[in-house]
Amino acid sequence: MNDREAILSPYGEGDGGTQHIREAIRTAIVERRLSPGTKLSESDVGSLFNVSRTLARAALQALSYEGLVRVERNRGAFVAYPSPEEARQIFAARQLVEPGILRQAAGNITSDDISRLKQLLADEGKLMNERGQTARRAEIKASGDFHLEISALSQNLVLHRFMEELIARSSLVIALYGRSTASSCGHNEHEHILECLAKNNIDAACQTMLHHIEHIEADLDLRERRGVSLKEAFEL
Amino acid sequence: MNDREAILSPYGEGDGGTQHIREAIRTAIVERRLSPGTKLSESDVGSLFNVSRTLARAALQALSYEGLVRVERNRGAFVAYPSPEEARQIFAARQLVEPGILRQAAGNITSDDISRLKQLLADEGKLMNERGQTARRAEIKASGDFHLEISALSQNLVLHRFMEELIARSSLVIALYGRSTASSCGHNEHEHILECLAKNNIDAACQTMLHHIEHIEADLDLRERRGVSLKEAFEL
DNA sequence: GTGCAGATGATTGTATTCGATTTGTGCTCA
DNA sequence: TGAGCACAAATCGAATACAATCATCTGCAC
């Protein structure tokens, strides 16, 4: 997670404490430690990180551009509560871009990359066998990381940034609408994609990727949880 | 441009004056009234819009997430000066997503949409025949608007947002590296795409779209303008 | 004349303050 | 008892103030 930092923040990496707060909250959201709808008060965030509201506000603003946080005027910031429609759009976008990204990545991949990815999958596999919330969380994260590694290999920062957003929001969606621990079924598919890449069978890799995303989405229970809006969720 | 506003800002549309400033600067950049490398001092921006530095800063920050503005720590904000590599990545991303978006849009398009788009192209054509900087600027903008209309028809906000970013940055790139007024050659291609859509010949539309983007990129003179950095550009 | 050191001015980074808006609570009155 | 209104608390929105950083300019030594 260390050397990724450079890739994760292509523009204005410094920005003092804002970036730090942003990353921390982002990770917390992706790992499900913050559940959708949770209120993120500027004062609370600020005091939590020992900074003023100014920086907290900037961080929350930044997260709202990624779609992870919803800011309502004069109300405050809340962890995003993606609607089923939003979820569908996110996965439609992934279906659209990921095969293309994979194709580009395949052109740049080295054997070193392949073994590194294999290691990543092995780690992911270990997590799968563990029980408990933290393992489950780490698993969600690791599952996303595979896709991010692929997009990094495409050597296209614009696309990589977009994928970061999509993966983060996907995690949120899975956390919300995920039916089972069936993300484990995705694990095999990750391996299969990697095998195809190793054999330079790019078309098969893309096919598998498409099925993979399809499977993830199929495991969701995309039914409206709320009648009018997510308003009620705040009070809990 | 009025009713598009709702689409343009899916999240947190209010945000007081920040959004206004952001739109104004964004439009100025896209229309080439602000050239790449120009310094955007927080105080200057603030006094220009009669707001405090706080709001100016927020607007610049927001623009930096779109890639239109570059913020350097303790240095300030500058209109982005995309590198040739960045330009290539932007167009690679467009090549990747636009055919897919077009395909989705084709599924939703109505005859009303088609006539509206025809009108848009007609307006664009008028601008092409005019001379002068302002006409050229409006033409650049109109050319991008066609692609944005298509992405709006895809009814996928996530993808639409991404396209907004790509189109805006493309304008910047064209302003920087554009060789001729050859964006006019793209006009015919827009028409051709629309004709294919009208005939429900989706594959041909996608093909044309790919060629179109290719042509735009081919018209660029993607050679590094600066040796070390864009530092010199600031002083001018 | 050239090069380094310190001072100075401008600009950004962050905190604090004041004002506006919303929400929640309790009171009054029908 | 319940609806409506008014006041109070909390939170956000924006502006201002202060601190830190960087760029430049000057002056002195070599």
Tell me briefly what this model is:
With 236 residues, chain A is mostly helical. The first copy, chain A, is built from eleven helices and three strands, in the order ααβααββααααααα. The structure holds a DNA duplex (30 and 30 nucleotides).
Describe this structure in words.
The structure is a homodimer of 236-residue chains. The first copy, chain A, is mainly alpha-helical and 236 residues long. Chain A has two domains: 14-79, Orthogonal Bundle (Arc Repressor Mutant, subunit A); 84-218, Up-down Bundle (Four Helix Bundle (Hemerythrin (Met), subunit A)). The first copy, chain A, is built from eleven helices and three strands, in the order ααβααββααααααα. Chain A has helices at residues 4-8, 16-30, 42-48, 53-66, 84-108, 111-129, 133-153, 157-177, 183-198, 202-218, 231-235; strands at residues 39-40, 69-72, 76-79. The first copy, chain A, has a three-stranded antiparallel beta sheet with strand order 1-3-2. In chain A, a hairpin with a 3-residue loop joins strand 2 and strand 3 (76-79). In chain A, helix 5 (84-108) packs antiparallel against helix 10 and helix 7 runs parallel beside helix 9. The longest helix of chain A is centred in the middle third of the chain and has 25 residues, at 84-108. Chain A is globular. Chain A starts with a helix and ends with a helix. Chain A binds chain B through residues 11-12, 14-16, 58, 61-62, 64-65, 67, 70-73, 86, 89-90, 92-93, 96-97, 100-101, 104, 156-159, 162, 166, 169, and chain B through 11-12, 14-16, 58, 61-62, 64-65, 67, 70-73, 86, 89-90, 92-93, 96-97, 100-101, 104, 156-159, 162, 166, 169. Chain A binds a DNA duplex (30 and 30 nucleotides) through residues 15-17, 41-43, 51-55, 57, 73-76.
